[in-house]
Specification:
By secondary structure, the protein is an alpha/beta fold. It has one domain: TIM Barrel. Helix content is about 45%, strand content about 15%. The chain has ten helices and eight strands. Strand 2, helix 2 and strand 3 form a beta-alpha-beta unit. Helix 3 packs across helix 4 and helix 4 packs parallel to helix 5. The chain is globular.
Length: about 280
């Protein structure tokens, strides 16, 4: 590990008191990783937005002791300029200085995308409203966004977000390191020089992962898919194998010189904590 390597962790907003208590405990256990920030996802159309706000305010209040910033996800789908303006003011009032700015997916049945069609328009609005107050993270897709017309179009869309004022990017999860390295090379050739931080997804349930991956365009290499299928309902063996696989995978990313690691925790301590402990990333 080098001093330049950053760690960040992502959560989804809890919906129950039990979920809130669990997320607090998970954050406490992950704190020794000294992550730069904890991000919290944001449901389009209002489904989980209040829970997101409550969670990030609590994380930011705790940062006095933990030095771990909160980073709310902010989706432009279904939002108006007025609503985003109010949210930005709420973030500023609560001493939040980081945002993950996304287009987001249009929920089923929602026809009006709102005042912002794409993430670059949201980023441009944030910069015009708040200047450099916020560090802005954006999404990147090493294996191409599933709705992009082509890889080149997808790269152009990513560059528009960077040009609008993005500070760094968090990738969609992937299990093919070559895809990430090739994407970074193409970005550099395009004049994109912000940090592109790989997203790491745990494998807790193969069927769920396969379904989600098919929808979001994240490839599960055939050899890995076949290996995971072998475990079927042997959860213990699955967890042992995936922990070994993800530890080696993360080690290879570090060796490749990535600027950071972004863990999709799924509101769980493991495998994030164990992977980092095995690799000597705890403090």
């Amino acid at each position: 590990m080098t001093n330049k390597l950053t760690i960040s962790c992502e959560f989804f907003p809890p919906k129950t008191e039990k979920g809130i208590a669990n997320m607090r405990e998970v954050r406490k256990k992950l704190a020794p990783l000294k992550p730069e920030f904890f991000s919290v996802t944001f449901g389009a159309g209002g489904s989980t937005q209040d829970n997101t706000l409550d969670a990030v305010i609590e994380i930011q209040q705790d940062s006095v002791n933990t030095a771990i910033d909160a980073a709310p996800h902010l989706s432009c789908v279904g939002s108006t300029e007025e609503k985003i303006h109010d949210l930005l003011n709420t973030f500023k009032t609560n001493n939040i200085h980081r945002i993950v700015a996304l287009r987001g997916d249009l929920p089923s049945g929602m026809r009006d995308p709102g005042d912002f069609r794409y993430a670059n328009e949201l980023i441009d609005f944030i910069r015009k409203e708040t200047g450099d107050h916020f560090t802005i993270e954006v999404a990147a897709y090493p294996e191409v966004h599933p709705q992009a017309a082509s890889a080149e179009v997808d790269l152009d869309n990513f560059k528009r977000k960077v040009d609008a004022g993005a500070d760094s990017a968090l990738t969609q999860y992937f299990y093919n390191i070559d895809a990430y390295l090739y994407f970074v090379d193409r970005c550099q050739a395009k004049g994109i020089d912000i940090p592109i931080i790989p997203g790491i997804m745990p494998i807790n349930n193969f069927i769920q992962l396969a379904r989600f991956s098919d929808g979001c365009g994240a490839e599960i290499p055939r050899w890995l898919r076949k290996r995971l299928e072998e475990f079927y309902d042997d959860t213990e063996s699955l967890q042992a194998f995936t922990l070994d696989f993800l530890t080696e995978f993360t080690h290879k990313l570090i060796d490749a010189g990535v600027p950071g690691l972004h863990f999709y925790t799924m509101n769980r301590t493991d495998p994030t904590l164990t992977i980092c402990q095995r690799l000597g990333l705890t403090h």
